[in-house]
User: What shape does this take?
Amino acid sequence: MGLALTELIDKLGFEIKVGGDLNKIVEGCYISDLLSDVMARSNEHELWITLQTHPNIVAVSVIKGLPAIVLSNGRSPEPATAAKAAEEHVVILSSSKTTFEIAGLLYNLLKS
Amino acid sequence: MTTKTSKPIEGSFQLFEGDFTNAGKASTELRNVLKGLAVADDAVRRAGVAAFEAEMNVIIHGVAGTLHYAVSDGELNITITDMGPGIKDINLAMQEGYSTAPAWVRELGWGAGMGLPNIQKNSDKFKIDTVVGEGTTLQITIFI
Assistant: This one.
């Protein structure tokens, strides 16, 4: 079972850095800072949690059709990344929490 | 999906080493073309990953090159040609984790040694022609 992005934003306290379609369903997450690894192993309906903030993350998200990118440890997208994301309708969220905490909270929410 | 077209739908993009700003542009545009043709989502995703990895290889190693695509009769053919250094050992390059990318490229999260393996995994047919000192041509076919 999955949850809509909008519900996760509310429950996990994500900050919306770049908005878009917040009705997409999330069923899990993939965690990696290696872009080819995300292209190889992430699945549709998975949030992508990363520390990478440069513009190439947008194209990876588009190609894989991911519901949103979550930047952990309070990171923000580079201005060029935010501009590209807005153009491509890619949602970018930010959290002050660590990757571990975000994944743990998401796991509990989705399993409950 | 079976595409029956008398004329292939085709296009091409120029790629330049170091042009990380435009990385993914060719692949996302190709994705839009395929979506417009109502190609199945899975094939669109596989094409996107294969094209993006091939694009990155040119941007990381290839000096300059082109990505050409053609859609006709149930298949997508992508040809990526570059004027880069060529691949010395294809078996090694096909091994996941092997990379010759410089450290600064790895810091961006590229250069994990997954490019060619990812292309192979997402292609229905895949061929590499390479000459050391002259360049590399990849031919990718995806059934759509």
